[in-house]
Amino acid sequence: MRRAVWVAGAVLLADQVSKLFVVHWLNLAQRQLIEVAPPWLVLRMAWNRGVNFGLFANDAGLVRWGLIAVALAISGWVYWWVARTPQRPVVQVSAGLLIGGALSNVVDRVVYGAVADFLNMSVPGVVNPWSFNIADVAIFAGAFGLVAFSGSGQKPRDARKELR
């Protein structure tokens, strides 16, 4: 599980450093928009008070602390689930990605009251209205990895052979 802890720490650090740099040092919180390589990459400030795409952001105080509790519970459960039996490295990395991303977004909710999203990617002719951050990418990749790689590693058994 050491691998998962290191990956989680690296994701948390990378996400928080990127937010300090972009939101504060580049002053995106005030500027709101920095065109880096439009439309492929634009830094567009968004404070996400809800869940994905701002869902459930209507009662910010209740949602904020509820989402903090949910993120901590899921992170703890994923850690426990992966730590209870030996896992392949890809599963440990996936768990670390998910946990690190979730904990970094928890830090945002505690410090800012919302998650700082600033990466916006589009393609010519199609404008993406949503922003995201490194933690969001890590959460998605970690969840995908856990689903894709967390099987027992055994071949599916053939029930027909057992009936003979």
Mean pLDDT across all residues, rounded?
86
Task: Work out the radius of gyration.
Answer: 19 Å
| Uncertain spans | none
Helix tally? 6
Q: Give me the secondary-structure category.
A: mainly alpha
Q: Helicity, in percent?
A: 55-70%
Strand order within the widest beta sheet: 1-2-3
Helix-strand sequence? HHEEHHEHH
The structural domain count equals: 1
Alpha-carbon distance between the two ends:
41 Å
Strand count, sense and barrel status of the largest sheet are: 3 strands, antiparallel
Shape: globular
How many strand units? Answer: 3
Proportion of strand residues:
5-15%
Structure description:
- The protein is globular.
- With 164 residues, the chain is mostly helical.
- The chain has helices at 2-25, 28-31, 60-83, 89-112, 134-149, 159-163, and strands spanning 33-37, 41-48, 115-120.
- The longest helix is centred in the N-terminal third of the chain and has 24 residues, at 2-25.
- The chain has a three-stranded antiparallel sheet.
- The protein starts with a helix and ends with a helix.
- It contains six helices and three strands, in the order H-H-E-E-H-H-E-H-H.
- The mean pLDDT is 86.
Nutshell version of this structure?
The chain is mainly α and 164 residues long. It is 59% helix and 12% strand. It has one domain.
Write the layout of secondary structure elements.
Layout: H1 2-25, H2 28-31, E1 33-37, E2 41-48, H3 60-83, H4 89-112, E3 115-120, H5 134-149, H6 159-163
Antiparallel strand pairs: 1-2, 2-3
